[in-house]
């Protein structure tokens, strides 16, 4: 992963996680995440769900077929500023207690809501990138490409 891609990912608040079961049936969900030392982590938080964590389709899919993709994107009306980073890789449930705790802390640091909505010991998905593709303007929002004006949202 290039440095500009990692910075772009780090500035995003939401990504879209695509997983597939053993029959290749796709499933895409928005996720909260952190990028730590080249690894992407997302947790199963305490928001209401119809099933327990291991019953969630994204978790079942990863256990059955660990190949996943993530899209981190920015859309603005000034098309000179749109861009995305797509990460393909392998998803696993984090087994190492220290790694899981580190991911929980990092998620709580990034998302204040997780101080109450992320239970200690929650399942954490670890995504190890194998390929990264990016397109467009990955500059920070406060930088504007030459010839383009900043628009407020």
Question: What summary fits the major beta sheet?
Answer: 7 strands, antiparallel
Question: How many structural domains are formed by the residues?
Answer: 1
Shape: globular
Strand order of the largest sheet: 2-1-5-6-7-4-3
CATH homologous group name: Electron Transport, Fmn-binding Protein, Chain A
CATH architecture: Roll
CATH class membership: Mainly Beta
Report, as a whole number of angstroms, the end-to-end distance.
Answer: 29 Å
| Poorly predicted parts | 144-153
- Helix-strand sequence: HEEEEHEEHHE
The beta-strand count equals: 7
Radius of gyration: 16 Å
CATH topology title: Pnp Oxidase, Chain A
Number of helices: 4
Structural class: alpha+beta
Mean pLDDT value: 88
Fraction in helix: 10-25%
Beta strand %: 25-35%
Secondary structure elements and pairings:
Layout: H1 3-11, E1 15-20, E2 26-31, E3 34-36, E4 39-43, H2 57-64, E5 67-74, E6 83-93, H3 97-110, H4 114-117, E7 124-136
Antiparallel strand pairs: 1-2, 1-5, 3-4, 4-7, 5-6, 6-7
Your description of this structure?
By secondary structure, this protein is of the alpha+beta class. The protein has a single domain (3-136), classed as Electron Transport, Fmn-binding Protein, Chain A (Pnp Oxidase, Chain A). Helices cover 23% and strands 34% of the residues. It contains 4 helices and 7 strands, in the order H-E-E-E-E-H-E-E-H-H-E. The chain has helices at residues 3-11, 57-64, 97-110, 114-117; strands at 15-20, 26-31, 34-36, 39-43, 67-74, 83-93, 124-136. The chain has a 7-stranded antiparallel sheet with strand order 2-1-5-6-7-4-3, sandwiched between helices. The protein is globular and about 40 Å long. The chain starts with a helix and ends in a 17-residue tail after the last strand. The model is unreliable at 144-153 (pLDDT under 50).
